[in-house]
Amino acid sequence: MAKRMRLDKLLANMGFGTRSEIRRAVKLGRVTVDGAVVKDFGLQLDPEAAAVRFDEEEVIYRETIYVMLHKPQGVVSATEDTRDRTVIDLLDPEDRVLQPFPVGRLDKDTEGLLLLTNDGKLAHDLLSPKKHVPKLYEAIVHGDVDARDQEAFAAGVTLDDGYETMPAELVIGEKETKEDGVYSRITLTIHEGKFHQVKRMFEAVGKKVIYLRRNAMGPLQLDPELPLGSYRPLTEEELLQLQSVHKKADASED
Fold first, then answer.
1. Which residues contact 160 (CB under 8 A, 6 or more apart)?
2. What are phi and psi of 151, to 5 degrees?
3. Can you say whether the dihedral through the CA atoms of 227, 230, 236, 238 is positive or negative?
4. Helices in the chain by DSSP H: which ranges?
């Protein structure tokens, strides 16, 4: 069965502009399909068979997809799950066609940046323990986070299973005192991705994470304009930045 995709989605995935920019261009007659001008940006077509041109430039369909998702709480970082809604369920059907998968995992109750792609090599480079790609988190912690915690994290803490973490950078923000104790807002940069790592690091120093959001992974930063639960294709600049990580990884293995 041939793959079907909306015209505006095809052009957005191929980097010809935002969805709104492309829709305006289609209405202005700047797009042709099989030699004919089309005005319907929702036109369903086979991207591998249709001859699409944008301002006379041939649109070359690619099999790869790179998506930035602002993951909400309540969904799991998996391609399928029998009990819970997955991050793939948040995608439009035409994006699921390319079978993207989440690069790494965010806990069900964790929000923030999640990259979805079908580029296995790039995903491997971003996740490989040997690459030490930094990940930046923002959290609210039940407990008075202080300089002693900063020193402990900078040295590496021992988790509940005996694993000693790599040095991490802890920055302490505002604090609020409530009836049940002090709550600290922090940011934390880690260079690995163990299971529930941020939560377990704070448990190791006697504190509890009650809210967690990932803001960055390597050079990729969460778009502040991207609503919770929404997603968009990576920009060309963002993709080039991620590919630079890939190139550095290849160079380090030479």
1. 200, 203, 204
2. -65, -40
3. positive
4. 7-13, 19-27, 93-96, 120-127, 147-155, 197-204, 236-253
Q: Does the annotation mark 107 as catalytic?
A: yes
- DSSP annotation string for 122-144: HHHHHH-TTT---EEEEEEEES-
To 5 degrees, how large is the angle CA 246–CA 124–CA 66?
A: 70
Q: Diameter of the chain by CA atoms? A: 70
Spatial separation of the C-alpha atoms in residues 182 and 188, rounded to whole Å: 18
Containing 80, the helix (H) or strand (E) segment is none
Spatial neighbors of 64 by CB under 8 A, at least 6 apart, are 98, 117, 118, 119
Q: What is the pLDDT of residue 244?
A: 84
Buried b (16+ CB within 10 A) or exposed e, 152-169: bbeeebebeeeeebeebe
Q: What are the pLDDT digits (tens) for 132-164?
A: 899 999 999 999 999 999 999 999 999 999 999
193-252 pLDDT per residue, tens: 888 999 999 999 999 999 999 999 999 999 999 999 999 999 999 999 998 875 655 555
Closest CA to 22 of 95, 14, 234, 62: 14
Catalytic residue among 34, 55, 95, 107: 107
